[in-house]
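In the current project phase, work has continued on tokenised descriptions of protein folds. One protein thus recorded appears below exactly as we store it.

——
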Amino acid sequence: MGTVKWFMFNVHFWSALLDVTLSLLVIPYMLFPAAAGYALGLFTMIGMDLALQTTVVVIEIGMTVLSILVLFENRYTFLAGSNKLWIRARRIFIGFCYVVACTYFIPFNFMVPDQSLAGPSVIQRLRTLRCFYSGPIFVLTQDATVVAWTTAVKLLAEFTFIIALVILTFLNILKKNKVASLSKNTMALQKKFFVSITIQTAIPIAVIIIPLVYCAYSLAYEFYSQAMNNLCFLVISSHGLVSTIAMLLIHEPYRNVLFRWGKAERQSRTMSISIARSFNDRNSTMH
């Protein structure tokens, strides 16, 4: 656990930061299939540029996914330490992934069109929008094709690598179990822990992937539903909460402590009620 705790902390840090950003700092109001929307959070109140806010959200989503990738890479390296080629290349690869996650969206800031012309074109494109929204609109780009494809390819590459790491790590555990290079108890613990973190990360990953799939569908087929747009970002903003609940329920030490606290709280309440009843009964007898 000692070798992986900081990687797990990294996952929870970015998950929590993404939640805070989406639900407090930015609060995006998106208008898919147009690459447009508005921000209603604290960043807007202090006057932060909307293109920069968009970049912050995209980077945080990328860093959250990358933190999961790095977690599984750590598990693979720990269990497959004999792969010398990967040990030499891993730092370069991970460093490259961090650079891409932090910088790939920056060039799109230079594609931002003249808002005085782009805003009315979005309202014209989404004719039902004017029925319930009359606020300001920020348009990132009038043609989201390049942005959408670049983001899709990046996410596909990252999730493909995560799946490959999960499969390779699990196969490595089975291999070591067969050759008995580690004790049965150690291998059982390693297998149990690996399955736990796989489930723990698969659940919140789904919370991100499912809304993004809808966003891609909306862009591809020009489908507009403001209710679905709002629901998607509401679901994504619950990513950290879902991740925390998954961690507390899946990992036995956390689960035991959580249930112990609940049991102690119930016992404390029961004892308090019993003492109060005894005190009341004694007073009634005395009177």
Q: What stands out?
A: The chain has one domain: 5-189+206-239. Residues 196 and 250 are 6 Å apart (CA to CA). The first strand starts at residue 28 and ends at 30. The beta strands are 28-30, 35-39, 138-141.
